[in-house]
Every structure is written in structure tokens, then in C-alpha cells.
Amino acid sequence: MLRKIVQAAVGIFLAVIGIVLAAKLLSPLLLVPDKPIIFYYGALALIGIIMAVLGILLSLPLLKLTESGTERIAANFATMSASEIAGRIIGLITGLIIASLLGFSLSRIDLIGPYISIIAVLLFSYLGWLTGGKLGGDIFLLRAREPRVKAEKKPRGATDEAEGRLTPKVLDTSVIIDGRIADIYRTGFLEGDLVIANFVLEELRHIADSSDSLKRNRGRGGLDTLNLLRDQFNPHVVITQQDYPKVAEVDSKLLRLAQDLGGVVVTNDFNLNKVARLQGMQVLNINELANAVKPIVLPGEEMIAHVIKEGKEANQGVAYLDDGTMIVVENGARYVGMQLAVIVTSILQTSAGRMVFARPKLDKRGEIVELKANYAQNK
After folding, report:
1. What are residue 368's phi and psi, to 5 degrees?
2. What are the backbone dihedrals phi and psi of residue 233, each rounded to the nearest 5 degrees, phi first?
3. Domain spans of the chain?
4. CATH fold label, 302-378
5. 234: which DSSP letter?
6. Per-residue 3-state assignment (H helix, E strand, C coil) for 59-97
7. Span 155-292 CATH architecture
8. Res 286: pLDDT
9. Which pLDDT belongs to residue 159?
10. What is the pLDDT of residue 10?
11. How far apart are CA 261 and CA 238, in angstroms?
């Protein structure tokens, strides 16, 4: 029923437009003294019928196009940030104001003036919508670049300049999936807004929809991390629609976005870290932070190690500190499943983290000190 009403409305609208235009433009040709007046009205009626049929034929494609466009607009609105929506609305209103001012002058042109005014309204409204979306999506940059010092309350986190400028932190997919970013930001060691690009969200969604269960769980964990950030730090979490269609790789887009925003990339990706540093960009790597805050162990220091497995080399045993640091115990293969006192002999720093090499501590009689078997108490 609705489609029939739309068809009839479009047909009537085009028929009226056709008759009005014909009456204005074709009157000198149709009003001939030698021909009866019925010829004039008949020509207008024929034009009206043709336009009505044309409107009925075009109404269905126009209706489908309108429905698809409405769904697309609704989907776009769902992914827009509040600042971008506000920017688009302001841009649309500004475009309508400019079009109305121009339309007042253009409407005075004979015959085509009103139609030029309509075109001007559509054109400036569209331009205002696009411009407002571009500017509105980056409103948070003004917050990042302006001093945030208030009269009674200072901004959250430390500042990177004396004026109080807070640098945006652009999050990579890997650091979102990792999940530690929420705890680090909560402690206040990170400053400024957390920027999540829409193309990173798309990559995260594809991972969450993967057929591989491991990838799917990692993707869903990343989405949970973002929801946690939005719930706890909503004013500082910004989703930007800024994209680079000509750039294929997500990592390259991320670097371009960080450059445009004047921010830094937060990542766990080793390769992205290297590429960004080659381009002279500042990068924050959470794995490097985790390694930096591990307790410092010095050669000669004593500790208790629980040997859990044999090492790669002969007679080596492997233990771990509470923070995950690996301890390689010389001649420790025979003590798997036991706790023993060890003395640190050397420390090796690798790209994967810190490794501690140690040897069992011996007493004056050459026996292992504080040797305890986990199973000895049960015997």
C-alpha cells in the first residue's frame, strides 16, 4: 500500500512540474492564433500524462534507493562519535543558511531562478554535511592541543609540555587485544586521550568473527577491553572516523593517523614499533614497559627458585620469578619439582625480555642449601 501511495505521489508531483514548465516555456509555441485553444490544453494534458507515467516508473527505483540510503545513514550514525554528529549537524545548518542567502538573490533570475535556488540548497547542505563531519571528528584534537588546566582541578595524568598540552595516544589492535592498556591507564602512567580509529575497530570485528576459536576469543577480549575503557574513562576515549582509503595496510594507516593528530602510537607489535621509529615517530610499547618495571636482579644475589622443567641444554633446569622472568639453573635438571636456593651468576637482556642465569647454592659441605622436595612431606 505504501509503495502505491509513493508511486501516485511521485507521478502527481512530476505531472504538476511538467505542466507548469510547459505552460511557462512552451506557451509561445502552443498558443497559435490559427489553432483552437483546445490544442493548447491538450498539449499540456499530454505532457502531464507523460510526466505522470514517468514518475510512476521511476518511483520504485527511487523508493529502493531511498530505503538503502536511509539504512546506510542509520548505520553510519551508529558508528559516529558524538563530536562528529554534532559537527555534521552544525555544518548542515551552516550550509542551509548560506544557501538561503544566495537563494534570495538567485530566485530573482527569470524562469530558472527558483530551480537554481533549489540546487544551491542541495549543494551547500551536502558540502556543510561533509565539512562538519571532517571537522567534528577531530574536535577532540582541540582538547588535546589546548591547555586543560582548570581553576581547582588539574587534568588527569602528567603533561608533556609546560602549557598543559596532552598528547593523544593512538591504540593499535595488538594493544587492545592484550588488555593491559586499561590497567596502565587506570594507574595514571598514560596521559591524554585514547584514540581508536574506525579501521582498527573493523579489524578487531573481523578477528572477533573469525572461524578460528583462538582468534575469535582474542577479538572478543579486545572488544571487552574497549567497553571497559569506555565505561571507566569515557571522556578520554575517542573513536575517530578519519580514514585513508588509498592506504591498504592498517599499520600504515595508524602511523598516518598518529602523524596527523600529533600523537603517539601505543602498540605491542614489534615490526610496527621498528617501522615507526625508522620514521622518527614516538612509540609506546607495553612489552618494553613491562620489562622496564621488572625487579632488578644483580649477580651474586640469592633467591629461592622452584625448578619446574628441564632446560634446552644438558643438566639445565628452568624456573620463573613471579613476574615471569625465566631463571636458568645450572645443573638444575636433577631438581625438577623442587625448591632450592640459587645464586645469580649473570643476566641476559633480550628482545623477548630478561633471562637470569643462576647456580645452586652450596654449603660448606658441598650440599644443596634449603633443598625441599615437594613430594617429601607426603612420604
Report:
1. -65, 135
2. -130, 45
3. 2-136, 155-292, 302-378
4. OB fold (Dihydrolipoamide Acetyltransferase, E2P) (2.40.50)
5. G
6. HHHHHHHHHHHHHHHHHHHHHCCHHHHHHHHHHHHHHHH
7. 3-Layer(aba) Sandwich (3.40)
8. 84
9. 44
10. 72
11. 12
* Residue bearing cell 514518475: 55
Beta bridge partners of 336: none
Q: Is the dihedral of CA 369, 374, 377, 379 positive or negative?
A: negative
Whole-number pLDDT of residue 373: 44
* Per-residue pLDDT reduced to its tens digit, 327-368: 899 888 888 888 888 889 888 876 666 788 998 887 777 666
**Rounded Cα distance, 121 and 223, in Å:** 41
What confidence tier does 152 reach under pLDDT thresholds 50, 70, 90? very low
Position of cell 587506570? Answer: 186
Distances (CA, A) of 256 to 173, 223, 243, 249: 15, 23, 9, 11
Does this chain's domain 155-292 share its CATH topology with 302-378? no
**How much is the average pLDDT of 72-88?**
67
Q: Between 34 and 163, name the one with better pLDDT.
A: 34
Task: Report the distance separating Cα 11 and Cα 131, nearest Å.
Answer: 35
Helix ranges (H only) for 284-347 are 286-292
C-alpha span between 265 and 257 (Å, rounded): 9
Q: pLDDT digits over 210-225, tens only? A: 888 888 898 898 889 8
